[in-house]
Amino acid sequence: MWVICLLLVACQGVSSDQLQGRILLWHSWEGADQELLDQVLDQFMEINPEVTIVSARIPEEQLKTRYENSAPQGLGPNLIIGKSDWLPDWARQDLIADYLVQGVVSNNYTSEGLREVQIQGVTGLYGLPLSLSTQVLYYNDDDVKLPPVDLNALWVQAESGLPVAIPTNFSSGYWGIYAFGDGLFDKDGQFVLKRSGLAGWLTMMKEAQELSNVVFSRDPLLLRNLFIQGRVSYYVGRSDEWAFLREEIGDEVLGVALLPSGVIGLARPLVHAEVVMLSPASSHAQKEVAVQVARFLTNQEQSTRFMRELGRVPAHQRVEVNRQIEPRMATLVSQTRLGVSLPNSLPIQKIEEAGNLAYANVLLGIKTPDEAVCEFGRAVIMAAPRLGSEEDLLPVNCLAEAGAE
């Protein structure tokens, strides 16, 4: 009888290696996205009955600030789903933990996703990429017979009566730089303004601004509304807007194409990621649970589900997209594969502010494209002096201009 009781206890009890514990997850998902996220978390808890996951939605505009206020006190969530843009500063401030230390390997994710969770020059994995987003060309399939492959064709179609809406802030408009030359930074993070296509792209935008049916604006929501209302036929928007646009204008009407190329090369937009980050304030047991939850959310199966049901571009490299069955998602993935990232070891916010000013000055007629490029270059060098000197990094015309002053 004693032996039988011991066996019953062993069968009913929790094994020593079974995952157990309670964690808190913060996110900003809402609507259908939140419903699916909760379903996925419920499935994890069904698989691991000794685990409790408390999922709390924080409004997107509050999420970053609330975490920054609570994390230094050892409070807040064990996991947070947030933007990769937040990651570099949080890692430097020790507000998030390194997954490599927790034994997580990085070979499951695409190179685009990994760039967003690693800091250039630093060994570490400071988040697990959940999904990717970038700029794409949306179009109204009722209006457009064949989307353009290059910018000149886009302007021709605009002039023929198919209006185009393009955002003009630095991040949203980065894609056009590659159409006229190299990007602003090479793969090693060196500033290559001299051979970049920035001046050519700004010149093209200034010329296109004079065309009828081309709408430039720093307000992407304004442009998106014009597209939803049917007042423009083309809209350069974020890939993570796809599910929303499909709901608003109809699945049969929404078309997606690669961004048009230029005289030098293909459009290469900036890539951003939504990532699952780990709090360093968690206990050892909580970290064990949190790491497994993060891996579950970003695995091949959940990434496929988020892609098919929510339209999120997967960051898991083994998710397959059949172009015959899912042609639009295949286009979103293809555009993401062409995307680039700014070196996150640099002060990105200051670089983006300088870029926003350059775009605005040209389109408002305050500066010529060459003048705006020179001013932008000086601002970048001032924000990150380690990149080098003006003599080494600025185009020759910038140095001549400085000498004339």
Polypeptide structure, described:
The chain has 405 residues and is of the alpha/beta class. 42% of the residues lie in helices and 14% in strands. The protein contains 16 helices and eleven strands. It has helices at 2-12, 31-47, 60-70, 87-92, 111-117, 151-159, 198-208, 220-228, 242-249, 284-297, 300-310, 327-337, 348-363, 369-383, 390-393, 396-404; strands spanning 21-27, 51-57, 79-83, 128-133, 135-140, 164-167, 214-217, 234-238, 254-257, 272-278, 313-314. It has a six-stranded mixed β-sheet with strand order 2-1-3-10-4-11, with helices on both faces. The protein has a five-stranded mixed β-sheet with strand order 7-6-8-5-9, sandwiched between helices. Helix 2 links the parallel strand 1 and strand 2 (51-57). Helix 2 (31-47) packs antiparallel against helix 11, helix 7 (198-208) packs across helix 14 and helix 13 (348-363) packs antiparallel against helix 14. It is globular.
